[in-house]
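Issue: copy button drops trailing tokens. Both records pasted manually instead:
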Amino acid sequence: MTSLRAARPRLLLAALATGTLLLTSACNDGAGPAQDRAAGTTPATAARSAAPTATTTPAQTPTPQPAGADDPALKPFYGQQISWAACPADPRAAKAKIDTSGMLCGKLHVPLDYAHPAADALDLALIKLPAAKPDQKLGSLMVNPGGPGGSGIEMVKYGAKEYDGVLHNRFDVIGFDPRGTGESSPVVCYDDKQHEESNQRDTPLEPAARKARHVKAATEHAAACQARSGKLLPFVGTRNTARDLDVLRAAVGDGKLNYLGISYGTYLGALYAEEFPKNTGRLILDGAVDPAQDRLDHGIDQQVAFEKAFRRFAADCVENHPEDCPLGKDPDQAAKKAADFLDGLYEHPLTAEDGRRLNRDLGWTGAVSMLYGDEKTYWKALRIALGWAMKGNKPDYLLAFADEYNGRDEDGHYSPMEEANGAISCADTSRPAPTPERARQAVARLQAEAPLLSKGVTVEDYDEPSCAYWPFKTTEKPHAVRAEGAAPILVVGTTGDPATPYASAEALTKGFANATLLTRVGEGHGAFGKGNGCIDAALEAYLVDGTLPAAGTRCS
């Protein structure tokens, strides 16, 4: 649950104060480092196991009346028929040479408030990539790219090639924009000019000034969101989205939910399994969030993981790519050299061709965002971007990476991702203020294990509750999701994942009553769409045949 913005880099630290976590996904190399931030055009473009699952029934199995559908007030929603039609023209897709001619779009009608379903409703935007072999179709595969706030429509539209082959042949791949995001009644707090002005201001280095800026910004942010989207804010939490997902499952005629969730999408999948265990079919949760972990602990673990990835990138740059590496010749000092340059942008920002400045916050955002990807494509892009900026004073590549993460397109328009991210995060859980000792422990660990990314952090950055200024207080709390009675679930973790550290995948798997962990050994966030044949074969075997990988399977 994420929107990492504040001091050091703004991308990472304010999230710990506001309670949001960086869980964006890089599931589609063709869509850039943060698939759930925006669909862009950045430079990043095993055999099946024979071990049977506990159930090997077809993916599309009839189920008893689903939970909630027997409520007379919900029957119209569960019984609705979706009117699929050709998708409207998308100039961005056309510019990127994405063929959307075979895709269909539609709307799903859902209650605003499930406690009072007749009072008001929302329409959720949908997209469908129909099964290439309808005579062999097993049902639908619902997908979510992460965020929270990522667009499932963009995940399908811009990532269609990732489903080529068995998945596209056997399933209708369906993406949806969750409530409060994208084209589904998005939470709106600011206009493009306000976003731009905010991003062009660096977070103060001095602790008292930083604290004052945070309080002012958080207070104004809450008021702006309340003024423009107040009716929606109490109802954007993930538990409501899980209920929407069950309505969608029924509306497309599926007896069981087959689902692929990346990053934050694993939290959505876990809550679905908790709410509707008997309706689960085959759930893949990739780049896992541990729903039981304290929000502060997760944020610290995440920042430490990003620092480790940053250091691995820098060492690889010096040792394996000296011809285009701007970080010197000493692998032990390479990360510090990069960090010193990015920190220096506070006093000496660089001006891009469009007249905007690459400041410290944007520089760190652009650099860290590329750590979502693998070492072959994303790390290469980051080497080139740092080279242009450090040697040629040309910040345009780094600024483009920051723009993509922030949801800014080349015309200066911002997606609603960031507003949705904060609203959903505060609807999902609010961390109480840590004790002074707990805050000191957090700072001490960051200074010891993430000194480059947490330079200047103080106890004052952690001395208040998350979502302290948000107008609505949630009752949701971190908790282990057991999902008793659910079908076997497949959790996927990547050993070098900085956004959702591998330990979270281990914890999520152990929490479930019936789950298997599949491991990808490598860099970057998530495993789907990374071109790993072992991973792809295991996912296909599970979705198509119900065959889980053997316990302990690791894909290098």
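Record 2 (pasted manually too):
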Amino acid sequence: MPVIPLDDHHWALTTPGSTYVIGVEIDPHTGEAAPRQTYWGPRLSPEAARQVTGLPERHVTSFSTPAEVEELLPVDGGTRWGSPSLQVTFGHARSAELRFVRADLQDGRLDLVLADASHPFEVVLSLRVREDTDVIERWTTVRAGTEVAVTRLDSGNWFVPDAAAYRYSGVFGTWAEESQLQRGPLPVGELVFTSRQGITSHVANPWVMIDAGETTEEHGEVWGVALAWSGSWRLTTTHRPEGGVGVSGGFGHDGPRWTLAPGEELITPSVLGLYSRGGYGAASRAWHAYAREHVLPTSAEERPVLYNSWEATTFAVTEAQQLELAKTAAALGVELYVIDDGWFGRRDDDTTSLGDWFPHRERFPEGLRGMFDGIRELGMRGGLWVEPEGLSKESELYRARPDWALHLEHRRRDEKRGQLVLNFAREDVRDWALGWLDRLVTDLGLDYLKWDMNRPFTQAGWPEREAGQDRVWIEHTRGVYRVMASLRERHPGLRIESCAGGGGRVDFGIMRYTDEVWPSDNTDARDRQTVQHGFSQLYPAGAMSAWVTDSPNPSTRRAMPLRYRFHVAMAGVLGIGGNLSEWTSGELETAAELIAQYKRVRATVQHGLQYRLAGTPGAERSAVQYVRGGQVVVLVYNPLGNARRGPRRLRLTGLDPEAVYELEGDGSRWYGATLMASGIRPAAWEPIGPDHRSDLVVLRKV
């Protein structure tokens, strides 16, 4: 049984490699219930788990209650002064005093039901474990029997066990510089990662990992927490001065209040917890496996090699020019051709036409069908860029329905990137979006949509809803989910890519409805290495869209060899985004060879176990390795030509030490033990040579 009752008030949740013990502590004087975590670590037997049902109290003073950091959902009330996971107001009373009602247990799910002592208000803490993953899912439901204002509702708080020191890992970034990994000592106090933009954001991503400061890539304990949500969010890591760390995560936005009427309920997204004793690498591989098995809708498929025409044409999209590019792309071995921005309305630049989702009347007077028929005749599938949540003031839609934009009464409507945001919390907006998307996919026979979202929320209101308009911060995101889900139901073969000005919407929430995500608008291969390194900490390569673009790079102006650009993009789902009409015959020939090589290894790259090897990607000699079945794929990078220092051999990992592996190319054979203990000598790691050398190394288990 994955959930084992230890007594009337304690339970052990067991995964393949961990045990999570919780209990409901009831104050004998007040009757107040405080669900608490007492253990989270290596797997224990039920008998051993019973021995960790209680934690010794830390020193309590009249100014502190250290045990609040161990609670599953610290409330704003009583003798608590930390960051609350639940903050509610009944009339003029901003406080909650909860009593334990019951525990419901069924099929790996445990619900702890609590109720306020004085008001008809119920809180349900839900936990779920699965037999094939160490990831534990938690979420919270609140139900109102009277009017109640909710100002904070996290999905749950996780307690990281006592240690002499703590270190955190997370990512930061900005547009074109997303997913930059940072690690450092966890300061005493509160460390907050957040987005206030209405989307996941480029600035941070909703996860954090904690260790005791000694963990490496392949050794040591790691506790990870991730939030499956694509709107505004907050993760608060509290390092108590008395010791102990809590991580509370949830959706929402600073300031707004969500008023629940009698009979209403509010359910949070899942906050996920993972314990691993195999270092950062094992933690990442566990997150990847969870994403493939329980998040991504079509993770078992091999993603096609894609061409996107944006950098070749920008807004100047015409049928003749697209079909000419498509012929070149098909000759290279491309399998999916995607037409980007510029095909609709009067979209000649980024100031107009969002909302007018009909073919550009001057460029496509007879529609788009002929163009996509031509693409399919070349043997490729067809895809299209859309931005359903965007709205231009210069559009027929805005002139007809200005009330559909997010806005506040008697406040200006600020534009970013020349556009506003449509309110997907509205049912009529969702019906409109689903209608034109459904027609577009049906009429054109589309296989793929690149769903973009190019601006954060501003003036995020819905005046017709008056006091209830703050729910737009939650319901917009849920509305996007609903439209995507309905569209996929109607078109089971349709695949969707999530994009938000690059990596602004990358999370386990959006991944339930999309097949892959776009991690950054920066396609510079050296910069992409750091982006992809941070991305891989949580998310699998099979969900990461990665393009080969022109040199010098359109964004950074850095020149880069074609092989290096390909080898970086081959670490995920390979795409081409350069202007093929300007590539030389030699470049086209090399590209075709590299695409053919990728197709031979993509199943392993997209679905295999991933290992990060050697130094800092993009700055030092580094490599990334994938293992699936009997195939081993290693992508090796050396950005510095004059790299005399550093390892001369690359040690592999995750192999069978007794097995023999044959190296593709020269046919030499090596024991797994030799490859892991001594390693291989990649040509790209020779000490003297040009900058930006790379290799693709493939081994087969004999």
